[in-house]
Amino acid sequence: MKTATIAFAASAVVILGLGATWLSISARQSEDVFAKCRSSVVAGGAGQIGGPFTLTDENGREVTDKDVITEPSLLYFGYTYCPDVCPLDNARNANAIEQLEAKGYSATPIFISVDPARDTPEVLREFTDIMHPKMIGLTGTPEQISKVSKEYRTYYKVQNPGDPYTLIDHSTQSYLVLPKVGFVEYFNRDAKPEQMADRMACFIDAWKSSGSGN
After folding, report:
1. Binding-site residue set
2. Annotated binding-site members for Cu cation
3. Which domains, and CATH codes, for the chain?
């Protein structure tokens, strides 16, 4: 009888623990105004990605994140000398922004270079003008680029430092960032522009409904 009592008590503790965990998760989800829009999970929560930065824009001006992210923005880290991935990804992002605009929403595509040695403001401006009229190109010192890359948990590595034709390995996620909120979602390379536009619209609607978009 004592064994049965102990087993029953242990089961009760487990059930109570599971119940508390479920309540905790439910509470966090109910507090997350973007819960219905999310399709990705970030370890530690979305607040672990992103942060303030100071960089140089394609016109040679020093800018901060507050200067640049003035509306919903789609960030991508890459470099203009990239032979295929970056042009394709940025063209896809530009397409997603255009489809979003067709739905009545406004957003800005942002291209952050991980190749400050070659990507001068002039080079960036030529690249972004081809991609989308609203696209903003950003560069900076190696230290500034390293800092913002770490904030967004991106990866890049120059294959042959000093080689003017070197390739750079880099991650390829695109990040949806909202003013006053910060990072809310990322998109992998296989995301289609129409899917991105739909999900971005969901986040923007929730952002406006929460009052942060006013």
Report:
1. 82, 86, 170
2. 82, 86, 170
3. 51-209 (3.40.30.10)
